[in-house]
Amino acid sequence: MSTRRTESEIQGFQASPDLSRNLQQVLVDLIELALQGKQAHWNVVGTNFRDLHLQLDELVDFAREGADTVAERMRALDAVPDGRSDTVADSTSLPEFPAYERSTDEVVDLVATRVYATIDTMRRVHDDVDAEDPSTADILHQLIDGLEKLAWLVKSENRKI
């Protein structure tokens, strides 16, 4: 009794519409986080400017790399990522970032809130993603862990004891 399969019996895993939609939401929030992080980076002023300026670059790099990982995972599952600026602006769950210069204290609070909003998106879709594709859920785990660490580092700038 042979266990060999024929070529026609072998197919790659493909994302369902629900998985695609969930990953798309994560993607646009990561892209928006990177954009807002750069906006904050360019316009932050005040006490401890340099440290926060550099921390924001770390956050932006992490969000950009995370967005690329999610988009490439989507392609690996035959889903089509959409990172166009109109799509991101229309579908992100992150609050709008204010214009103009902002104090370091204000930027810390604004950025921490946006990092947690991105994490909330990942946590909201996690169980559905995990049910369909545990490998993709592992990517979400890594992103959540990394973003929670970055949020802690940023928000600690304003913490008083």
TrEMBL record:
<dbReference type="Pfam" id="PF00210">
    <property type="entry name" value="Ferritin"/>
</dbReference>
<dbReference type="InterPro" id="IPR009078">
    <property type="entry name" value="Ferritin-like_SF"/>
</dbReference>
<dbReference type="GO" id="GO:0008199">
    <property type="term" value="F:ferric iron binding"/>
</dbReference>
<dbReference type="GO" id="GO:0016722">
    <property type="term" value="F:oxidoreductase activity, acting on metal ions"/>
</dbReference>
<dbReference type="InterPro" id="IPR008331">
    <property type="entry name" value="Ferritin_DPS_dom"/>
</dbReference>
<dbReference type="InterPro" id="IPR023188">
    <property type="entry name" value="DPS_DNA-bd_CS"/>
</dbReference>
<feature type="domain" description="Ferritin/DPS">
    <location>
        <begin position="22"/>
        <end position="156"/>
    </location>
</feature>
<protein>
    <submittedName>
        <fullName>Ferritin</fullName>
    </submittedName>
</protein>
<dbReference type="InterPro" id="IPR002177">
    <property type="entry name" value="DPS_DNA-bd"/>
</dbReference>
<dbReference type="InterPro" id="IPR012347">
    <property type="entry name" value="Ferritin-like"/>
</dbReference>
<comment type="similarity">
    <text>Belongs to the Dps family.</text>
</comment>
